[in-house]
Design a protein that fits this description.
- With 382 residues, the chain is an alpha/beta fold.
- Helices cover 42% and strands 13% of the residues.
- β2, α5 and β3 form a beta-alpha-beta unit.
- α3 runs parallel beside α9, α4 crosses α8 and α9 packs across α12.
- It binds pyridoxal-5'-phosphate.
- Pyridoxal-5'-phosphate binds next to α4 and α5.
């Protein structure tokens, strides 16, 4: 019995082999490994895709977050880093990097609870925190989790009223939108990841900062190459966080495939939901889609109190599945003494205990999608 994987990067490579091989060969021909022509070409193509003024390629999604936050610190405080008195509100139900980046920028992460339907940050919790502690809140960092946009219109309104910035964590939502506006083009800046398993992935690490603000763009460009316009005469405490020419070339070749692959993910998600939605009474919840969003299913994530048993049962039938994420950030050692939490965050905790993500390889055959659906149905029938 063939195992159904979460993703099949080899199959995706075979699908676009001609484009990728050509892009790689071009780089070997010109040998401009650092800031080669593909870097600016990809930045421009991606800015055009998103509808933003600036895109700045960086070495990973994590560095995209850190650099965007450092730029905000410099712009807003005139200092290199935020201080622990500066707070940034985010979700506890995300990848560690979201919260880590806040600490690395010098600020304190404030974790507020999530919306149970979408797993995204709960706007009302954000509003409640700001109503009481608004003067401390420098920014809001929503994550478009699993490929579905957070409630950006309300978050932007709350942020604007409080004079806070909004940085979008778009690592899982490349190509998603809200009311027709692409994620990563709504806030003051966006941070993308091109980690191989993301919807647009490279062959190693890579990331991007998107923004319409000239000052933010200029600062990020300085920070990613040691902190100066001139590498040998530096202004800010910087990083070596460039994107490789090779990765930019590969991403440039893969970008035209992104929308089609996102559509395929949506079709697979549609089949799953159709085949599973009547299991609600048995204890399985399929993803809820906010009608204002174009969900691109970086993950197709169901929830059930019998999560661990379901995972074991699927594995026995050759179906891979993954838990994103088993621990909310506020329960991790690294955030102890370095965070503020608004209450006990019960919804995030419950989600971490109940979620399970299913295989959603864009090139996955319909028969495989049905096999996964059958395996789950059988589990809940027994
Ligand atoms: C993947 C991811 C990141 C980090 O991106 P890297 O490129 O791996 O550094 C940040 N936030 C979220 C939500 C992610 O899924």
């Amino acid at each position: 019995m063939k195992t159904i994987p979460m993703l099949d990067l080899r199959q995706e490579y075979e699908h676009m082999k001609t484009d990728i091989d050509l892009a790689v060969q071009r780089c070997f021909d010109h040998q401009h490994w650092i800031f080669g022509p593909e870097v600016r070409a990809f930045e421009n193509a991606f800015a055009n895709y998103l509808g933003v003024k600036h895109c700045i390629g960086v070495s990973s999604g994590t560095e995209a977050l850190v650099l965007a936050l450092r730029a905000q610190a410099i712009l807003r405080t005139g200092k290199e880093y935020f201080t622990p008195d500066d707070q940034i509100i985010t979700t506890p139900f995300t990848f560690t990097a979201t919260g880590d980046a806040i600490i690395r920028s010098g600020a304190t992460p404030v974790f507020v609870d999530i919306d149970e339907q979408t797993f995204n940050i709960d706007t009302q919790e954000v509003a409640a925190y700001i109503a009481e502690h608004g003067s401390r809140v420098a920014g809001i960092l929503p994550v478009h989790l699993f490929g579905q946009a957070a409630d950006m219109s309300n978050l932007m309104a709350i942020a604007r009223e409080n004079g806070s910035f909004v940085l979008e964590d778009v690592a899982q939502a490349c190509g998603a939108d809200r009311c027709g506006i692409k994620t990563g083009s709504i806030g003051d800046a966006g941070a993308f990841s091109f980690f191989p398993s993301k919807n647009l992935g490279c062959c190693g690490d890579g990331g991007m900062v998107s923004t319409c603000d000239d000052a933010t763009a200029e600062l990020v460009r300085m920070l990613l190459k040691h902190g100066g316009r001139d590498k040998y005469n530096v202004v800010h405490i910087g990083y070596n966080a460039r994107i490789d020419t090779l990765q930019a070339g590969i991403l440039l070749a893969k970008l035209p495939h992104l929308d089609g692959f996102n559509e395929r993910r949506r079709q697979i998600a549609g089949l799953y939901s159709e085949g599973l939605q009547d299991l609600t009474a048995a204890g399985l919840t399929v993803p809820a889609v906010d009608p204002e969003t174009y969900h691109i299913y970086h993950q197709y994530t169901v929830r059930t109190p019998r999560r661990d048993a379901l995972k074991t049962c699927l594995s026995e039938q050759g179906v891979e599945s993954m838990v994103y994420y088993p621990f909310p950030l506020h329960e991790m050692e690294v955030f102890k003494g370095r965070m503020v939490t608004q209450g006990a965050l019960p919804k995030a905790k419950k989600a971490a205990a109940e979620v399970l993500s299913l295989p959603i390889e864009p090139l996955q055959h319909e028969d495989d999608t049905r096999r996964v659906t059958h395996a789950i149905r059988n589990f809940f029938k027994s």
